[in-house]
Amino acid sequence: MTKTTTHFAGGPAEDNAPSIRPILHYTAKNTWLNDPNGLVWHQGVYHLFYQNNPFDNVWGNMSWGHATSTDLLHWTEHPVAIACDEEEDVFSGSIVVDDGNTSGFGTMENPALVAIYTSAFKEGSAHQGTQAQSLAFSTDAGMTWSKYAGNPVLGRGSAHFRDPKVFRHEGPAGSCWVMVAVEAQHQQVVLYRSANLKDWEYLSTFGPANATGGEWECPDLFPLPVDGDPDNVKWVMVVNINPGAVAGGSGGQYFVGDFDGVQFTADFDSLVPADADGTTDLRICLWLDWGRDYYAAVSFSNAPENRRIMMGWMNNWDYANSLPTSPWRSAMSLAREVELATVEGLVRLIQRPALPLDCGEPTRTIQNMEIHNSLVRLPDAVPGSAQLIDAEILPGTARTVAFRLLGASSGSAATVLSFDAITSRLTLDRRNSGNTSFHDKFASAESAPVKLDGGVLRLRLIVDQCSVEVFAQDGRVVLTDLVFPLSGNLRTDVSVEGGTAIVRKLAVTALS
To answer: Taking 50 as the threshold, does the pLDDT of residue 1 lie above it?
Structure first.
């Protein structure tokens, strides 16, 4: 894989921790970022807008930063796209390509990109104390933006009405724009429709449901064929929550169901009933990611070939402002291709990293190696590269199969990914990963239930300087965690305890 654009990933001269800045995960050059916003594909280019503080590397002065890519891996940073001002902070939202020029901001020949974002109105403004939905538009393929003079276009008199995701819907009643947004503190998704992006009519409300222990944020709603069958289409409602996720703090949940153009109805098997005391078992909710660091995930608009591609903020509000990086702080996850598949008779979301089919020549491959209560050394992680590990392992009689990632050359320091064959759980443990002292909530171990397929554990790991993303069983289970290894901690190995396992296939590849 060859880098084709400039992405602030290797660390500019002023970066005091160049070995920590990721290679394939987007970071801003020297400022703060959080939620991905306005994800859109237009004229052959993927646009990533995001919550950005243009003046510092902690949260504040919320504006929309901007980056572009042609491959979803290598990004070019551009000037701030939609800036805060004395009236408003510019909170999260989405972008559509207004092909029919329904808004009048462009022309039929040159349709505008229209951003629908949340205005968080400041003290002294006419709408102070409220959040409402506003518009901005671009007629030069997303490079410069103008705020609509008629903003806001939709309000509810609420202080927590935000994060609009807008899409085009074709139904029996015709074609219209549909917005899903949240009443965050009521754990509700509210749906509206419009003919022109300016005038909105209320449709319905979804929620509360499943995980409700924090504010609901950054919703999404999209259709997907089940098992690739275009005659069997279901809808996916994504709702991010903070706090109250399965691993603690921030996270994303989803529901599978149906949307009739007015109401989203979740399938019965997507809903988790509350216990007698009113609590919900978070372990049986449907989670996008079982790790600590995948939040505010939303999908791209207008992606080619009907692909559904999602991206999240690789962080957690529990410790986000304290990450030990400078001058940049925070990163995006890898883009993920998502599909719906039948898993044990239930329709569930499958996620895979958006990597090319040919990731290059592996630095080491293993086939049909039997390991009995021992350790096999793998190629070290390479500074300036990310590490891709693909593995198929039959745990056999072994109790535990474990990968030691970004480890010290001697001693126990490492991030450890382990599968326990007795409990059938996959655990990502960063408690001894390196620098964990910057916040008392950072040291943690996250686990998820994983069912073997014919006795086989399949893993795809992407280790990128300060993060580990784990895609298990072809993307049925995902765990994402930040890690901050000490300088020189690059060792990688796989070990087996309590019996004999067979490594059927394993390949380690350096990505840059």
So the answer is: no
